[in-house]
Design goal:
By secondary structure, this protein is mostly helical. It is 48% helix and 8% strand. The chain has a domain of 107 residues. The protein is built from seven helices and four strands, in the order H-H-H-H-E-E-H-E-H-E-H. A hairpin with a 2-residue loop joins strand 1 and strand 2. The longest helix is centred in the first third of the chain and has 21 residues. It is elongated and about 75 Å long.
């Protein structure tokens, strides 16, 4: 009969791997960020936003751009098309960050032309996915690597 089992491994080695960002391989980082990018594009396409496009934006779209699309974050589809997963994370057009986090609109030539009151807080329209379904293959690969880190002297 087994009375007990003792495991010995170095938490320091494990912590160092995490701190140096070497826990995931480049391929795993790329795969994971591509999953998140795909999920983020899907959020925009699904139009499940609490904050809808306001009337002044629709007016500007109709008059300035000759478009009547009322979809949030989908005037031309350029933002969704720009979302890509890389080894360093998710990349997209710069204005995507502002849309995701919200910002304060300040007076400029555009706001003056369209009589938009400033300063004005523009609410966040969060679309960047930070948790998503991850393939079993990727999870198994990460688990195998973790086991190797723990058991390697």
């Amino acid at each position: 009969m087994i009375k007990g089992v003792t495991f010995r491994f170095s938490f320091r080695k494990l912590a160092n791997k995490f701190n140096k960002g070497k826990f995931l391989t480049k391929a795993q980082k790329l795969n994971l960020s591509q999953v998140f990018a795909r999920a983020s594009r899907q959020v925009i396409k699904s139009q499940q936003f609490a904050v809808k496009v306001n009337d002044s934006t629709l007016d500007i779209r109709r008059k300035l751009k000759k478009r009547s699309n009322s979809d949030t974050l989908w005037d031309t589809g350029a933002l969704a098309a720009s979302i890509r997963g890389t080894e360093k994370g998710i990349q997209m057009l710069e204005y995507g960050q502002y849309q995701n986090e919200g910002w304060t609109m300040v007076e400029n030539a555009f706001t003056a032309k369209w009589n938009i009151p400033t300063p004005q807080d523009v609410p966040a329209r969060p679309f960047v996915v930070t948790e998503a379904e991850v393939s079993d293959e990727l999870l198994d690969s990460v688990a195998d690597e973790l086991i190797q880190i723990i058991t390697t002297k």
